[in-house]
Amino acid sequence: MENNMRDKFLFFRNFKTVADKLPDDLRLKFYDMKISKLDEILKANEYPGRGIVAGLSADGKYAVSAYWTMGRSAGSRNRVFVTENENGSEVVRTKAFDESLIAGDPSLIIYAAVRQLGSKTIVTNGDQTDTIFEGLKKGETFEESLRVRKYEHDAPNFTPRISSLLNVEGGKYDYAISILKSDCGNGDNTLRFTYTYDNPQKGEGHFIHTYMGNGNPLPSFEGEPEKVEIKGNIDEFASMIWSSLNEENKVSLFVRFIDIATGKYEERIINKNNRPVRKLC
């Protein structure tokens, strides 16, 4: 038994050693069994809800962030991403496309989705963006800042709050992803999970979304963030996501590539209700 276990260990260790020395495209093929295709996941799910991706570009030069919104109701579909300048820093917000169609609690659909704090980029699906921003300024960690929040108050769905934090500093990069959700629909209990990735791999990222699929009530995301392949430049990556999202339910998409060496970034915003936005910072 011991020899058998040792042989298996040596096999997988040698397998990894060989695979890690291959060119990026061949290395990804070796690990393909573990890495999902983001476009295939999205095409197979008509309503994954809002989604966040964080990872590293295939060439290892860029920290990659993506966030999109989806909607089933007229109110949820009545949104666009806009950029604003706040104290010298860009903020990406959701905004009503037609203000006459705003209904219900606007805080659930109108919020700052992306904020920058020094070397840190905060991307979330709700107003917890501001909670994280203020917490980090006070010296709290990503996880600590979210302890005062819970899932969204939209019973019976209890939509999860999903968040990401990308840290690019001194030529190094790491990221974290969080989800706050109800306990299988039990609104009296909040489940909190934080996943940290301190050594991102080329061409790999992690994907989390609010719902497992369509339904009434909507079933919350289950499991760990899915490991997904990241390939292409910013336009190719953004186009892949946008074209893979359900045509009827997709609303807006934000994608940012951050140069790890310089901290400068390039981003794309696509709104179903108006034309794409290209930006360099």
Fold topology:
Elements: H1 2-20, H2 24-30, H3 38-43, E1 51-56, E2 62-70, H4 74-77, E3 79-86, E4 89-96, E5 112-117, E6 120-124, H5 128-137, H6 142-145, E7 161-169, E8 172-183, E9 186-197, E10 204-209, E11 226-229, H7 234-244, E12 250-259, E13 265-271, E14 277-280
Antiparallel strand pairs: 1-2, 1-10, 2-12, 3-4, 4-5, 5-6, 6-7, 7-8, 8-9, 10-11, 12-13, 13-14
Keywords:
single chain; 281 residues; alpha+beta; 7-stranded antiparallel sheet; 7 helices; 14 strands; 38% strand; globular; disordered N terminus
Structure overview:
The chain has 281 residues and is an alpha+beta fold. It has helices at 2-20, 24-30, 38-43, 74-77, 128-137, 142-145, 234-244; strands at residues 51-56, 62-70, 79-86, 89-96, 112-117, 120-124, 161-169, 172-183, 186-197, 204-209, 226-229, 250-259, 265-271, 277-280. A hairpin with a 2-residue loop joins β5 (112-117) and β6. The radius of gyration is 19 Å and the shape is globular.
